[in-house]
Amino acid sequence: MPAKSIPGKAVQIAAAQTILRALGFAARQSNEMSALVLLALANLKPKQPWLEASAPLLGITPIIEFIADSYGVSYEPNTRENIRDEAVKFFAEAGLLLRNPDKPSRPTNSPNFVYQIEPVALALLRSYGGDRWPTLLTAYLKQGASIRAEIDRTRALARVPVTLPDGRQLTLSAGGQNPLIKAVVEHFAPIFTPGGVVIYLGDTETKFLHLDTAYLAKLGITLDSAAKMPDVVIHDVKRNWLVLIEAVTSAGPVDGKRRSELKQLFKGSTAGLVFVTAFETRKAMQAFLGQISWESEVWIAEAPDHLIHFNGERFLGPYPDAMPKN
């Protein structure tokens, strides 16, 4: 849709681009789209002075809506990723924006994920066009590293530490199913796969947070970057079982379709496949009871010493259709 003719729009966009360039952003992060994103985050409409900039909490969709309503530029819903990856992500990494300052533990894939202009940056934006702008800009650029360090420290405090069976420690991004993944590694694994090796550990922020490709190769498995992995993969060395675990908080149990997908994904395995769905509570499991596949297991974090077995002649073991082919 063509952009509407709005008085003052061009001047305001040009000012935002000037600010982004002054802050050291490259051409792609100081183009018109990025400038409009900055204006949305600063809650500034055309002709509104920068002194009136504010810092509302905004997600990607409200940013798009503000740009359409205030500047007459409509971005399709499928441009959400472009706006996030080509503008917002860079602004946040540079310390210009805070991620979820109201709730740092909010998961990356949450529909409520929000951004906000960092307070020192907001003071700088409000000075644009005034006598204090050059002085504040120089000071801001000098202290940029310390601002980013403090933001990184705050994010690190919100991460979820997890200890692997071999004693190594990793940290998962906050929220989502990651606390449940931590429980799977630290409670399920010692009880049901003692001495097992955690080969893969996923994360809502970093898909392949921990992946031992060499170990998988020894089991006859080769994966590509597009593989739709389960949340946790553990090799039960003593019984030569590959335990594939989905940690479910909102979606994604091992249903019939997912069981077939996992069989195909790990079809070269020389270890038998075991399918497990993990839930935090029995109540959380109830909504998925009708979906869970037969010949699979359910583990509930609130009762970590027990498993629920979905039919078949085995209890926590591979079935004939999931045994390695000799």
Question: Could you explain the architecture of this structure?
Answer:
There is one protein chain. This protein is α+β, with helices and mostly antiparallel strands and 326 residues long. It folds into two domains: 9-157, Orthogonal Bundle (Arc Repressor Mutant, subunit A), CATH 1.10.10.1820; 160-322, 3-Layer(aba) Sandwich (Trna Endonuclease, Chain: A, domain 1), CATH 3.40.1350.80. 36% of the residues lie in helices and 15% in strands. The chain is built from eleven helices and eleven strands. It has helices spanning 9-22, 32-41, 60-71, 80-93, 119-126, 133-142, 144-157, 178-192, 213-218, 256-265, 282-286; strands at 97-99, 115-117, 160-163, 169-172, 197-201, 210-211, 232-236, 241-247, 272-279, 296-300, 307-310. The strands form three sheets. The protein has a seven-stranded mixed β-sheet, with helices on both faces. It has a two-stranded antiparallel ribbon with strand order 1-2. Helix 1 packs across helix 2 and helix 5 (119-126) packs antiparallel against helix 6 (133-142). It is elongated, with a radius of gyration of 25 Å. It starts with 8 loop residues before the first helix and ends in a 16-residue tail after the last strand.
